[in-house]
Specification:
Structural class of chain C: alpha/beta
Strand content of chain A: 5-15%
Distance between the termini of chain A: 93 Å
Largest sheet of chain A: 5 strands, antiparallel
Order of helices and strands of chain C: EEEHEEHEHHHHEHEHEEHH
Number of strands of chain C: 10
Helix content of chain C: 25-40%
CATH topology of the largest domain in chain C: Rossmann fold
Number of domains of chain C: 2
CATH superfamily of the largest domain in chain C: P-loop containing nucleotide triphosphate hydrolases
Number of domains of chain A: 3
Oligomer: heterotrimer
Shape of chain C: globular
Radius of gyration of chain C: 19 Å
Helix content of chain A: 55-70%
Strand order of the largest sheet of chain C: 6-7-8-3-9-10
Distance between the termini of chain C: 40 Å
Number of helices of chain C: 10
CATH class of the largest domain in chain C: Alpha Beta
CATH architecture of the largest domain in chain C: 3-Layer(aba) Sandwich
Largest interface: A-B, 58 and 62 residues
Chains: A alpha+beta (647), B mainly alpha (408), C alpha/beta (246)
Chain lengths: 647, 408, 246
């Protein structure tokens, strides 16, 4: 009942001049040819008329037509709605009365093409908006979202009051305001709709506002001003290149095309006569001046078309003025849209800043994880472990192998983390005992010997696992991202890595500050000889420190494997950045490593943001920055100062 | 001559190099019997260039104690500089020949554009970058072979040494410099053809009529001559007081400062000099290799350089040459698939796969047990003995060669 | 002005700790001076400041007749101006021969380019021999200095300092680890050296200082506590308190 009333009200609203609408059948019959061979370009008025008929069966008719269930009975050319009934069709006339059945062959089914169906859908929307079915209503909104049209404004507004679903109601309200911006009947209403959004960052709003600011280039005589809503003037040489300005003139047919070097060359080649072109010997043609002379001679003789000279081009360009003119005629609208977009831009920039910060943070936590073990060995023992990257790789491969055996990803991750720690801890201790121990006080040689281990390990990994990347699949609950809004979203893996970084920071601080091992570690760091005389076994501490650093590298490897592909070069990709992190942060201090990771992560993301097309250049600039940074603070951000630094 | 008398290794070295050069000349396909192939002559020529950069590395590391992980970058930069001329001049010939067929002769601008689009088509550009301004001139590019590595080394060295960055920090920093340079070259808009690098360098412009077997032996001779010159130069540099000072810097740079020597100046001098030698080595190497791309600058290449010098024996020039020649030839033998596989029953060792492992482990063993490297063998033969070090290390800072009486 | 080195109002802070606090010090062109003080009094930091290793936060350090400021100059420059320093631990270049060590230290041009083309003349060889003779190493010229005994290394280092021909010599605890006989020899040598140049000896050992028989400066907590003859300062109650504790 309500629907009928509503439809009637709608009909009245849409067709205020109409006292009585034609019946559906009448309309169809009156436009039989148009309907039968419906084309997107011509069918519009018919559909509008149908929609405006006020007949409660309009929806059903339009739906049937769109679904290819409207046909013409061949015998008498009557429009009938079709319902499948066995092999035959049950027929219904547009006025709702049944009309028996018919064989398939007796019916000429109407098959509207995609363009027509879109128009039909558009007309259907107003009915669907008030449909009792939630799904239908949602679909209708999606259609409006995709193809907003002026006619949808009223039905949408009308359907709003009766909407019961709060979420859908909010969506309808938003769509209504968006439609009002586009098609609102008066400028104040449209501007009010724009203002109602404030600094909303929705993509749909920006999609609505941006077309309002579409503009095209317009040429006038110099000194004149074009019609319409002018955006700005384009000044040749400043906001438009003279070449582009001239091309505009050429495109409008106001000036002859310029002669390209290729065209000139071809013209010259076509007129070689007895070793001469226009009286100039061919041998001299390597001189551009000679070519000019030859072409001028040909032009004079009328053999080649005249081409604009540079002076003519300059004069033509100077004789006109160039403008950008808005498609939207009302200056008030463009001003409002501009202001709204500016407001949005500020907010989007802020959001992007936040997004950048989050990305930087997550990159920083990766570097932190990769560098923390390195910082430990470097800080405690003054040893640069070039094989650190390979320990990261070993951790990642451990994770991969565990996944091959334990198919449950969550469980395998839980096994892989401690196992990776154990494997790399053992490898680290082995390397310390076999290699590093014999090279104390020879830091450069340790660097080289551990590098030897590094290339051997890398090649062994290549021999075992092959050169192609191995997947380390993250469990399902780590897939996806935490979406804050259209601008900011963070993938769960990044969050997990961040959490892991924080956990390790906490764990590290706890070990260092609260345990006996930490105390001894710090003692050995500061003064090994003194620590030894206090009964601490520096050999044992060094071994543990090395093992611990390597173990952390292994865990970092599992985390990195989830985030990137596992290859034998995985560690190598991170090793230089890890070194940078340690060096920039300052040796022998976990907070320094943290600061270094934060600086390098932020820096890398920041430079990438400044120059998004070129991540290679970004890395170059970052390294250059670090080299310069070392100039300012040779001992890193957080440096041991004074006598403790041992200089 | 007292110089030769004081440095008998120079004479020995020159004699061995001369004999080797003569032998290769007699066996090469161009000038001799053809027992060895043209490509092997090229390999040997390249090895001599590597020996040259190893000499430079020995001066900077073995003598001055700066473990530079960036000298292969200077080597590659030298290669790029000569490569620019080779590529430009050769493309110029080709473009000129192509345009000569057209009815009217090309203008210089057309020629220039033709060359640019020919060279930079692969990176989707047809403009000649500004850094190619001198590419058409051989003398200018030859000067750049020396000047660019020198300028790079001076700029980097000045920054690094001025702020007293030393030891492992400096090594990491030089590695970062190399990586930065490599990444920069990897971009397409660096003006050096991105990761395509420069290619076709084996074709020498203006020498199209000379077959490769002759070119290869010419380059071999040039490499041998350059190596000989570099050896004599460096032997002379390290034989005098300058040598004393730089070795003193390696062992205790603070003490050298208090003697009034501007340590940073010396380091900078050595760094730049060796960069120039490396650049010249690269300029001779890449025409024999035929192609250069940014992968040649990868930090790992410079670490391998350190490996050669370490295996050969630091602090003696012939050690560096021995290490470079030995390891690089062995490496090409193993990776070239010529080494016989070793069947172990349960598995077969393919040396192509396992050579890196062997090299890595050998390197660890040399560092641990034979810091003298292959040069130590020479000591065994000549009966010379190193001073008893009691296990004390050779190197700068805390690792310097010192026989401490007591810790304070 | 007859003083060779004039330090005035110098302050140095390490991480908030004032190592040197408004220190002033003067020494004439041919004078022997002992600087004593308990641990942490700032003796080594004082030497670091004069030789350019540590930059003070405030104050002046002037050297020579022309009153050249030593602040803002590098260690090498200061050494070339004429300040020599002997470390507590003997630091000689152990990989090189005694002759090379002395030759390296010999007063000559120090720039890399000049040194590259510098070749020793007969006069230089003679000077090296003379120096080696002076420090009793003439018989060991060709030996690697790493093979020398601890005492010989000390002497070699002194020889190197002499070869530098400094106008001011800073000597850090020369007597540490020496036998009685060696101490006496060292004392005699320092007294002898001070006839032609300024010598500052930093020392813990009161006995040794007494033997030097020179003016003594007592440092405490980064500033001068007392100055005068050894008898004068040992009579000072403040000095006694500092040395013997409260």
């Amino acid at each position: 009942m309500i629907r009928i009333l509503l439809a009637a009200a709608l009909a009245l609203a849409l067709a205020p001049g109409l006292a009585r609408a034609d019946s559906l059948g009448d309309i169809l019959n009156a436009n039989k040819a148009l309907v039968e061979h419906a084309s997107r370009l011509t069918i519009g008025p018919v559909i509008d008329k149908l929609a405006a008929s006020g007949d409660p069966r309009t929806e059903a008719l339009l739906k049937a037509w769109g679904d290819k269930k409207l046909g013409l009975r061949k015998s008498d050319g009557t429009f009938v709605l079709l319902t499948r009934k066995g092999g035959d069709y049950a027929l219904t006339l547009p006025d709702g009365s049944g009309d028996g059945t018919a064989k398939r062959s007796d019916i000429n089914i109407l098959r509207p093409n995609a363009g027509v169906r879109r128009l039909i859908d558009g007309a259907l929307v107003e009915f669907q908006l008030s449909s009792p079915d939630l799904k239908t209503r949602t679909e209708a909104l999606s259609i409006i979202d995709r193809h907003p049209e002026a006619g949808q404004l009223k039905p949408l507004e009308a359907s709003l009051k009766a909407e019961t679903d709060p979420a859908l109601r909010a969506r309808k309200e938003r769509l209504l305001r968006l439609l009002t911006i586009r098609f609102g009947e008066s400028t104040p209403k449209r501007i009010a709709a724009i203002d109602s959004f404030g600094a909303d960052t929705g993509l749909d709003l920006r999609g609505t506002l941006n077309p309002l600011l579409d503009s095209h280039r317009v040429i006038t005589k110099a000194g004149e001003r074009p019609q319409g809503n002018v955006e700005r003037q384009l000044i040749p040489g400043k906001t438009i290149t003279p070449e582009a300005a001239y091309d505009l003139l050429v495109a409008r047919g106001d000036a002859p095309a310029r002669l390209t070097p290729l065209a000139r060359r071809q013209a010259l080649e076509a007129h070689i006569e007895g070793g001469k072109v226009g009286g100039v010997p061919v041998a001299q043609m390597s001189d551009p001046e000679a070519r000019d002379r030859a072409y001028a001679a040909l032009e004079k003789a009328g053999k080649v078309p005249g081409a604009a000279t540079r002076h003519e081009v300059a004069a033509a360009v100077a004789g006109h003025a160039y403008w950008r003119v808005y498609q939207e005629a009302d200056p008030a609208m463009t001003t409002a849209a501009k202001a709204a977009l500016a407001k949005i831009a500020v907010k989007v920039d802020a959001m992007q800043g936040l997004d950048l910060l989050i990305e930087a943070l997550s990159l920083a936590s990766i570097y932190f994880l990769a560098a923390i073990g390195l910082a430990l060995t470097f800080g405690v023992m003054g040893v640069i472990n070039m094989a650190h990257g390979e320990f990261i790789m070993m951790g990642a491969y451990t994770g991969y192998v565990v996944q091959q055996i334990v198919p449950d990803y969550t469980l395998s991750l839980l096994i892989a983390l401690p196992l990776a720690f154990a494997v790399t801890f053992a490898a680290g201790v082995a390397m310390e005992r076999l290699v590093v121990r014999h090279l104390y006080k020879r830091p450069l040689e340790t660097l080289l010997a551990t590098f030897g281990v590094s290339i051997a390990l890398q090649q062994i990994a290549k021999n075992i696992f092959g050169t192609q990347a191995r997947p380390l699949t993250s469990p399902g609950w780590l897939d996806g991202a935490w979406v804050l809004n259209d601008v900011v979203s963070i993938s769960y893996i990044r969050i997990a890595i961040f959490v892991l970084g924080v956990v390790f920071l906490g764990l590290f601080l706890w070990v260092m500050k609260r345990t006996r091992l930490g105390l001894e570690l710090r003692a050995v760091t500061q003064n090994p000889a003194m620590a030894a005389s206090m009964g601490i076994n520096p050999d044992r501490i060094n071994m543990l420190a090395f093992g611990l650093g390597s173990g952390i590298a292994g865990i970092a490897g599992v985390a990195l494997g989830l985030y990137a592909k596992v290859t034998s070069e995985l560690g190598q990709d991170y090793i230089v950045q890890s070194f940078m992190t340690v060096v920039v942060g300052g040796v022998g201090n976990i907070w320094g490593t943290l600061a270094g990771a934060a600086l390098i992560g932020t820096l890398q993301k920041g430079i990438e943001w400044l120059n998004p097309s070129n991540t290679l250049a970004a890395q170059t600039y970052m390294i250059l920055f670090i080299i310069l940074f070392i100039q300012v603070r040779p001992r890193g951000i957080i440096a041991l100062k004074g006598r403790a630094a041992g200089d | 001559m007292t110089f030769v008398k004081k440095n008998p290794s120079v004479l020995w070295f020159l004699v061995i190099l001369a004999v080797f050069t003569l032998a290769v000349t007699l066996m090469s396909p161009g000038t001799g019997t053809g027992v060895i192939s043209t490509s092997f002559v090229k390999t040997l020529g390249k090895t001599l260039c590597l020996a040259m950069v190893a000499l430079a590395m020995d001066l900077v590391w073995g003598y001055t104690g700066i473990l530079s992980l960036g000298h292969m970058a200077f080597f590659a930069v030298g290669g790029y500089m000569i490569g620019m001329w080779l590529m430009y001049a050769r493309t110029e010939e080709i473009v000129f020949a192509a345009l000569a067929k057209s009815p009217i002769p090309p203008t210089p601008a057309e020629l220039h554009d033709g060359i640019a689009s020919q060279i930079f088509g692969v990176v989707g550009s047809s403009k000649m970058p500004a850094i190619w301004a001198f590419a058409g001139s051989l003398p200018a590019q030859l000067a750049l072979v020396v000047l660019v590595p020198a300028a790079l080394a001076l700029a980097f060295g000045w920054l690094a040494f001025r702020s007293r960055v030393a030891g492992v920090y400096l090594s990491i920093l030089t590695q970062a410099m190399t990586l930065a340079l490599a990444l920069w070259l990897f971009q397409n808009d660096s003006g050096l053809r991105g990761n395509n690098g420069l290619s076709g360098l084996q074709n020498i412009p203006g020498l199209n009529h000379v077959p490769q077997e002759w070119l290869s032996i010419w380059f071999f001779w040039a490499s041998a001559a350059a190596l000989a010159l570099a050896y004599v130069l460096l032997a002379w540099v390290v034989s005098g007081k300058f040598g004393s000072v730089i070795r003193a810097i390696r062992d205790d740079e603070q003490r050298v400062r208090f003697l009034g020597y501007p340590v940073e100046g010396y380091k900078l001098f050595v760094f730049a000099l060796t960069a120039v030698i490396a650049g010249i080595g690269g300029a001779l190497y890449y025409p024999q290799a035929g192609i250069i791309n940014p992968a040649e600058l990868a930090p790992i290449a410079s670490i391998y350089l350190a490996v050669w010098v370490a295996i050969g024996g630091r602090g003696r020039l012939y050690g560096a040459v021995m290490g470079a020649v030995f390891v690089s030839l062995l490496s090409s033998w193993f990776t070239g698939g010529r080494a016989p596989d070793v069947p172990l029953g349960f598995a077969t060792i393919h040396w192509v796969d396992w050579w890196q492992v062997l090299l890595g482990l050998a390197f660890v063993l040399v560092t641990l047990f034979a810091p003298q490297g292959l040069g130590g063998l020479v000591d065994l033969i000549t009966g010379r003995r190193a001073p008893p070090r009691h296990g004390a290390p050779l190197g700068p800072d805390t690792g310097s060669l010192q026989e401490r009486e007591a810790e304070e | 002005m007859s003083s060779l080195l004039e330090v005035s109002g110098v302050c140095v802070t390490f991480d908030g700790f004032r190592a040197i606090n408004n220190l002033s010090f003067q020494i004439g062109p041919a004078e022997l001076r002992a600087v004593i003080g308990p641990n942490g009094a700032g003796k080594t930091t004082f030497m670091d400041i004069v030789t350019g290793k540590t930059r003070p936060d405030a104050g002046r350090v002037l050297f020579g007749e022309k009153s050249i400021s030593l602040l803002r100059r590098s260690e090498a420059e200061i050494a070339r101006i004429g300040v020599g320093r002997k470390f507590q631990r003997p630091t000689v270049f152990e990989d090189q021969s005694v002759a090379d060590n002395l030759m390296t230290a010999l007063k000559a041009a120090r720039g890399p380019w000049k040194v590259l083309f510098w070749r020793p003349g007969p006069a230089d060889h003679a000077r090296v021999l003379e120096l080696a003779d002076q420090v009793g190493l003439a018989a060991h010229l060709a030996r690697k200095s790493g093979e020398l005994s601890h005492g010989q290394k000390q002497w070699l280092e002194i020889g190197m300092l002499l070869a530098q021909e400094p106008r001011l010599l800073l000597v850090d605890e020369p007597a540490a680890g020496m036998t009685l006989a060696e101490r006496e020899q060292t004392t005699a040598m320092l007294v002898d050296l001070a006839k032609t140049r300024a010598v500052v000896v930093v020392e813990h050992d009161m006995e040794f200082v007494r033997r030097l028989n020179c003016k003594v400066t007592v440092l405490h907590e980064g500033s001068v506590l007392a100055e005068g003859s050894i008898d004068h300062v040992t009579a000072d109650p403040q000095v006694v308190e500092v040395y013997l504790g409260r």
